[in-house]
Design goal:
This protein is of the alpha/beta class and 400 residues long. The chain has a single domain, classed as Peroxisomal Thiolase, Chain A, domain 1, CATH 3.40.47.10. Helix content is 32%, strand content 20%. The strands form three sheets. Strands 1, 2, 5, 6, 7, 8, 9, 10, 11, 14 and 15 form an eleven-stranded mixed sheet that branches. Helix 2 runs parallel beside helix 5. The longest helix has 15 residues. The two termini are 12 Å apart.
Length: 400
C-alpha cells in the first residue's frame, strides 16, 4: 500500500468567499452566491448568470501584470502555504502543479483582438497566455524551487492536480507539493462555454432534482499543500486531513458527454479505492461532481451505485455546485476543500435548490440543509469535457 500523504494547508478564492473560513461558512450554510455577471456585457450572451469573485484585493506591487486567473491562483497558493500552524518557510523543494481549463485566457483574448485589428501585440503576450506561464509566475513569486507542472484535464483539472502532487510526494521526488486548480471568467471563456449549451437559463443550479436544467459556471482558485507525514511532523505542521488515494481515466467515448452507464466515473472511483487500500464499506461520504445537467446526474448516480454497491444508498452524497457554481478548473479544488472541511467539522454541506426527487437520482443527496455526520472518509468526484474522470479520497487525520 502506498504511504498516506498529509494535507497541511488550504487556500481558496471563490464567489463564495475569499479564504477557507469564509468559503466554508458559505458552503456549509448553503447560501447561493451566483448572480448576474458584472465584468461582461451580458447582453451579448444567452447565459448572463455565473459566479464572479467579489472583494478580491488589488494585486500587490509587482503582480499587476498577471492575468486575473493567475492572480486568483497566486492568492489561493499564498493562503495555503501560510495558513497552517507552521508556515512552509523552506520552499526550495516545493513543487507546484497548476491545473486549469483556460489559464490566462484574457491575455489570449487581448492578443487575438490586437491581431484582428492589425495591431502589434505586446512583446511576450502570446507566451504569457500559455498554461505553463502561470505555474512559472507563481513559483517565482512564492520562491518554489521544485518541479513546476501545468496541466489541463478540463473540469477534472483540480482533482488531477491533487493526484499528481500526491504521487510526487509518495515517490519521494519532493517532500512537499502545492496542487491548485484555477480559472477566471472572461468574454473568450464565456463564449466557449455557451456553445456547450449546458448552462441553466433559469439562473439556478438544482443538482439531482428532477427539474434540473443545467449548471452555471464560476471562477476562482483552490490550493492544497500535500506532504509526507514525516515531513509535516518534522516541521511541526498541523495535519488537516490525509490523502489516501486517487484514480484518473478517460471515457474514450464522446467529446462532451459521459457514457450513460457511468463506466468512466465508476472506474475512476474503483481506482481510487484500490489506491487507498479501502473497500466500499469504508467510505462515509461522497462529494459528487453533481453538475445539475440532465445527463450528468443520473450518469453519476449509476456510477456511484456501481462503485459502492449497497453502500451508495446509505451514505450522504452531496453537490455544492448550487452554492458555488461549477468552478471549471477550480471545481475539483473547491470540492476537495469542502470535503476536507466536512471531515474536520463533522458537517455535510447541503445540496441546495432540491425540490422534486428524480427516480434516476435516488441517492441521499443531503437536500437543502446541512447535516451532522461523523464521517472519517470521503470520496470526491470530478469529470470533464473530453471524457476526463478523477476521483480522490481523503480521510480524517486520525484515520490510520
Amino acid at each position: 500500500m502506498a504511504r498516506d500523504v498529509a494535507i497541511t494547508g488550504m487556500g481558496v478564492v471563490s464567489c463564495a468567499g475569499n479564504g477557507v473560513a469564509v468559503f466554508w461558512d458559505t458552503v456549509a450554510a448553503g447560501r447561493c452566491e451566483l448572480g448576474a455577471l458584472t465584468r461582461l456585457n451580458v447582453s451579448e450572451f444567452s447565459y448572463p448568470v455565473g459566479g464572479e469573485v467579489r472583494g478580491f484585493d488589488a494585486p500587490k506591487s509587482g503582480e499587476s501584470g498577471l492575468d486575473l486567473a493567475a492572480q486568483f491562483l497566486l492568492a489561493a497558493c499564498r493562503e495555503a502555504l501560510g495558513g497552517g500552524q507552521a508556515n512552509l518557510e523552506s520552499r526550495h523543494d516545493c513543487a507546484i502543479i497548476a491545473a486549469t481549463n483556460f489559464g490566462s485566457a484574457s491575455v489570449l483574448e487581448r492578443f487575438l483582438a490586437d491581431a484582428a485589428a492589425g495591431r502589434r501585440p505586446p512583446k511576450g503576450a502570446l507566451t504569457a497566455s500559455l498554461l505553463k506561464s502561470d505555474a512559472e509566475s507563481v513559483a517565482l513569486k512564492l520562491g518554489l524551487g521544485g518541479p513546476k507542472v501545468a496541466m489541463s484535464l478540463s473540469c477534472a483539472s483540480g482533482n488531477a492536480a491533487i493526484i499528481h502532487a500526491a504521487q510526487l510526494v509518495r515517490d519521494g521526488v519532493v517532500p512537499v507539493a502545492l496542487a491548485a486548480g484555477y480559472d477566471a471568467i472572461s468574454r473568450y471563456v464565456w463564449s466557449g462555454l455557451g456553445v456547450l449549451r449546458v448552462m441553466s437559463q433559469k439562473g439556478v443550479v438544482r443538482p439531482f432534482d428532477r427539474d434540473r436544467s443545467g449548471t452555471l459556471f464560476s471562477e476562482g482558485a483552490g490550493a492544497l499543500v500535500l506532504e509526507s507525514r514525516e515531513h509535516a511532523a518534522a516541521r511541526g505542521a498541523r495535519v488537516m486531513a490525509l490523502f489516501l488515494g486517487g484514480g484518473m481515466n478517460n471515457n474514450a467515448y464522446h467529446m462532451a458527454h459521459s457514457q450513460e452507464d457511468g463506466q468512466g466515473i465508476r472506474d475512476s472511483m474503483l481506482m481510487a479505492l484500490e489506491d487507498a487500500g479501502l473497500s466500499a464499506e469504508q467510505i462515509d461520504h461522497v462529494n459528487a461532481h453533481g453538475t445539475a445537467t440532465k445527463l450528468n446526474d443520473p450518469t453519476e448516480t449509476r456510477a456511484i451505485k456501481a462503485a459502492l454497491g449497497q453502500r451508495a444508498l446509505e451514505i450522504p452524497v452531496n453537490s455544492i455546485k448550487g452554492t458555488v457554481g461549477h468552478g471549471m478548473g477550480a471545481a475539483g479544488s473547491f470540492e476537495a476543500i469542502a470535503s476536507i472541511m466536512a471531515l474536520r467539522e463533522g458537517i455535510i454541506p447541503p445540496t441546495i435548490n432540491f425540490e422534486t426527487p428524480d427516480p434516476e437520482c435516488d441517492l441521499d443527496c443531503v437536500p437543502n440543509m446541512a447535516r451532522r455526520a461523523a464521517a472519517k472518509t470521503v470520496i470526491s468526484n470530478s469529470a470533464g469535457i473530453g471524457g476526463c474522470n478523477c476521483a480522490v479520497i481523503f480521510a480524517s487525520e486520525d484515520f490510520r
